[in-house]
């Protein structure tokens, strides 16, 4: 193939130009992709910069409003005295009223912040008390870390691990907390006397909710640490590691403001991370993040750039191979035409080009073949439809002799009984039915078929007067069609096999109900009586007969009418339209059902 491409002089020149174009495109792609990735990385990690700013703001807000949170300590002098007494003399020195005052004070402090889960009280007496906001109880849990202290009159951040080390009796209000420690003092008109420490226990859930709402990568980690490197909060809930991000801490000696560490990369455990940190010099804590490089989403712009670069190279090759492209286009057009014809689109013809080349001759031969194939298929289809119509008409006419014999026999009986008026009425009904029979149409509307059945039932009423009937036809289905004399054999089947002459409550019901399906409207037919029931063996034998062909000359007339109707329905509407026979309600009587699509008579073929 390469020898064919560079066989001529101009082919060699064009080939060299294409190679140069691809080389320049690759160089530009490399530098452009690097610039795009750097810009996208800056834009993506801005969300993390915002996230650590928000975390810092929440924590700074807690510390800024710490004194306001403790304001209930000074609103009531009696509660303040009770708290001072607790810090200086211990819990046993308090009266029941004083204990209630202290508990009420701590409850008031916790009330206005849903994330404040409890309070620790460290008195100068050396005792440690815990107030649980859930149970509103104050307990002496005992201070085990006797050398523990915090700077007086200064808000201090305490980590989860530091709080755990204070006492073995300490119980966390939630899984992870951090503490804000302040000074409890007794005040008079002249001076302030330090009497203990109060530590507010805040849940890290507020910080975690803020991290979750930022929609950051689950592989990334945001953390808050104090000046000593202790973890106050970690988004991955891992509070065991003291060096989650290897950053050089700012010592805080020259500023009390906010210092931001620039973003850099760190390698830990063979994984490269993008890291950045924010230091609050006033309250001495760090807010940091680390994002694994492998977890960052793929660059859409880089992908587009690669596609464009690849497209430029391909376009150069396609321009060079224009002659081959024309040939491929002609061949593809012929293949698409064959595919459409293969999908039974016999009306499709390939457009004939104006040029008189080999492809034109192939296209003309192909179109001629499609025309002949279409004629052959249409002829075969027409013969098949004619055969179905002939078979359907023969089945309908096979019903008439049996029906005529039964009706004439009933008229004869009426005349012998002297009921000439009834016989005349029966002749009128019979003439109406045979006038309809002489119509050569194979299909009638559902309304006409039900009217025909009612005439038939009225004829039987002259012979059997111990039954009643009901025809329930939904008005929306009257105009739709079905093969003529579909219901008549089902009605006759009742009078021949199902009517119980010893009963006065015989009942025959014909229901035609609309049924909505995904592919359109259907009509459901139910012909049910309360007469003689079929045995399970008879039902099984009948179902086997319905699943097979109609045997015209088998000599076994049992179930022939049902098989006839079943076959005609399948011829017109397909196999899914066959009838189903079963016992009626409560296992009594006989029920025949079938469902056909709602189609107008003139559209049935």
From TrEMBL:
InterPro entries: Bact_2-comp_sensor_kinase, HAMP_dom, HATPase_C_sf, Sig_transdc_His_kin_internal
Alphabetic keyword roster: ATP-binding, Cell membrane, Kinase, Membrane, Nucleotide-binding, Phosphoprotein, Transferase, Transmembrane, Transmembrane helix, Two-component regulatory system
Origin superkingdom: Bacteria
Keyword Signal found: no
SUPFAM superfamilies: ATPase domain of HSP90 chaperone/DNA topoisomerase II/histidine kinase, HAMP domain-like
Pfam family, one: HAMP
Topology of this chain in the membrane: Multi-pass membrane protein
UniProt protein name: Histidine kinase
């Amino acid at each position: 193939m390469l020898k064919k491409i560079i066989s001529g002089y101009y082919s060699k020149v064009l080939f060299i130009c294409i190679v140069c174009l691809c080389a320049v495109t690759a160089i530009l792609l490399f530098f452009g992709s690097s610039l795009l990735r750097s810009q996208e990385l800056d834009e993506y990690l801005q969300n993390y910069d915002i996230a650590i700013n928000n975390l810092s703001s929440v924590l700074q807000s807690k510390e800024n409003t710490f004194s306001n949170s403790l304001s209930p300590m000074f609103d009531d002098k009696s509660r303040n005295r009770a708290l001072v007494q607790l810090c200086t003399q211990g819990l046993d020195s308090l009266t029941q009223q004083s204990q209630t005052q202290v508990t009420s004070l701590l409850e008031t402090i916790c009330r206005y912040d849903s994330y404040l889960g409890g309070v620790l009280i460290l008195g100068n007496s050396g005792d440690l008390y815990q107030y649980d906001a859930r149970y509103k109880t104050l307990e002496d849990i005992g201070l085990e870390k006797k050398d523990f202290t915090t700077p007086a009159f200064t808000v201090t951040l305490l980590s989860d691990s530091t709080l755990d080390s204070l006492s073995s009796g300490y119980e966390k209000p939630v899984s992870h907390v951090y503490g804000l420690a302040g000074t409890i003092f007794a005040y008079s008109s002249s001076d302030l006397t330090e009497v203990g420490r109060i530590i507010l226990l805040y849940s890290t859930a507020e910080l975690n909710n803020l991290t979750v709402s930022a929609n950051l990568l689950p592989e990334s980690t945001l953390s808050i640490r104090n000046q000593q490197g202790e973890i106050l909060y970690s988004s991955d809930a891992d509070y065991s590691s003291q060096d989650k991000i290897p950053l050089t801490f700012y010592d805080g000696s020259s500023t009390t403001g906010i210092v931001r560490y620039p973003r850099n990369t760190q390698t830990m455990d063979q994984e490269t991370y993008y890291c950045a940190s924010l230091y609050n010099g006033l309250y001495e804590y760090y807010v940091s993040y680390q994002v694994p490089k492998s977890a960052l989403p793929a660059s859409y712009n880089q992908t587009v750039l690669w596609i464009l670069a690849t497209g430029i190279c391909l376009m150069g090759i396609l321009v060079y191979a224009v002659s081959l492209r024309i040939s491929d286009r002609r061949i593809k057009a012929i293949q698409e035409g064959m595919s459409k014809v293969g999908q039974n689109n016999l009306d499709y013809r390939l457009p004939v080009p104006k040029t008189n080349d080999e492809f034109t001759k192939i296209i003309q031969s192909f179109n001629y073949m499609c025309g002949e194939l279409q004629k052959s298929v249409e002829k075969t289809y027409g013969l098949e439809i004619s055969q179905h119509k002939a078979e359907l008409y023969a089945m309908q006419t096979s019903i008439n002799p049996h029906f005529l014999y039964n009706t004439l026999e009933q008229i004869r009986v009426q005349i012998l009984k002297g009921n000439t008026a009834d016989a005349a009425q029966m002749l009128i009904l019979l003439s109406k039915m045979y006038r309809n029979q002489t119509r050569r149409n194979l299909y009638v509307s559902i309304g006409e078929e039900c009217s025909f059945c009612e005439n038939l039932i009225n004829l039987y009423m002259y012979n059997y007067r111990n039954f009643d009937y009901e025809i329930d036809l939904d008005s929306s289905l009257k105009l739709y069609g079905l093969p003529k004399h579909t219901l008549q054999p089902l009605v006759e089947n009742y009078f021949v096999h199902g009517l119980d002459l010893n009963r006065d409550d015989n009942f025959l019901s014909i229901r035609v109900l609309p049924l909505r399906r995904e592919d359109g409207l259907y009509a459901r037919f139910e012909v049910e009586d309360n007469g003689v029931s079929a045995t399970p063996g008879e039902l099984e034998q009948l179902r086997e007969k319905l699943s097979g062909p109609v045997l015209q000359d088998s000599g076994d007339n049992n179930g022939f009418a049902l098989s006839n109707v079943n076959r005609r329905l399948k011829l017109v509407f397909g196999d899914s339209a066959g009838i189903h026979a079963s016992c009626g309600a409560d296992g009594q009587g006989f029920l025949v059902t079938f469902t056909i699509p709602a189609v107008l008579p003139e559209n049935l073929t």
